[in-house]
Specification:
This protein has seven helices and nine strands; from the N terminus they run E-E-H-H-E-H-E-H-E-E-H-E-H-H-E-E. The chain is α/β, with parallel strands linked by helices. The protein has a single domain, classed as Vaccinia Virus protein VP39 (Rossmann fold, 3-Layer(aba) Sandwich), CATH 3.40.50.150. The strands form two sheets. A seven-stranded mixed sheet has the order 5-4-3-6-7-9-8. Strand 8 and strand 9 form a beta hairpin. The longest helix has 13 residues.
Length: 206
């Protein structure tokens, strides 16, 4: 991840944040990843901004060949440990999501809470769409801009949040399958709160 719930952070700051022995994020895959990608036949996948690797490890456990990309080396080390704990293998790549390019198209590209400022976000979305092979899927989930005022948690700045309209408008010739502001329940000491996420799933026609 390049930008998280604490706002803009560089790789050194993310390395420091990930330096704890415990996982910063849960080791379980994102709930929308589990719900929407469970039925896909496994192939090659990229988890861009993998963080500690929870989605990459979940995909690998389901038979995917996963490349997990992040600019935090410490986060990637934790991703490798998480993979080992689950008895799976992932390829980790230490790189900036805004400039990295895969060697060839893949069957699945996952962007999960890769919260970036406007120009960088648009660049990454447009590039990621071109990485999807025929018949492949692009999966995007991120804090929605409406979450800043109407939801719970996430970055306080609208600048690093997504909208459904902007996201779908950057996907070129991909066919949009799902495009919605999805509600996500969050358990808090004060009770259950609702977070609002941009959720977009698109496929490249065969």
């Amino acid at each position: 991840m390049l930008v998280g719930e604490t706002g803009g952070m560089d790789s050194a700051q993310w390395d420091e944040r990930y330096s704890t022995s415990e996982l910063i994020w849960t080791g379980r895959a994102n709930r929308f990843v589990e719900t929407h990608l469970a039925e896909l036949a496994p192939g090659t996948a990229i988890d861009l901004g993998t963080g500690e690797g929870r989605n990459a490890v979940w995909l690998a456990a389901r038979g995917w060949t996963v490349t997990a990309v992040d600019f935090s080396e410490v986060g990637l080390d934790k991703a490798k440990r998480l993979a080992a704990e689950h008895g799976v293998s992932i390829l980790t790549v230490h790189a900036d999501a805004t400039t990295w390019t895969p060697p060839s198209p893949v069957d699945l590209v996952v962007l999960s809470y890769l919260q970036l400022p406007g120009d960088e976000r648009r660049k990454v979305l447009a590039h990621a769409a071109t990485w999807v092979a025929p018949g492949g899927t692009l999966f995007v989930v991120a804090h929605d801009r409406s979450n800043v005022t109407d939801g719970y948690g996430g970055p306080p700045s609208p600048e690093v949040c997504y909208t459904v309209e902007e996201t779908t408008g950057l996907l070129g010739d991909l066919e949009v399958i799902v495009a919605e502001v999805a509600e996500r329940d969050v358990d808090t000491p004060g009770g259950t709160r609702t977070a609002l996420d941009t959720l977009v799933i698109a496929r490249r026609p065969l």
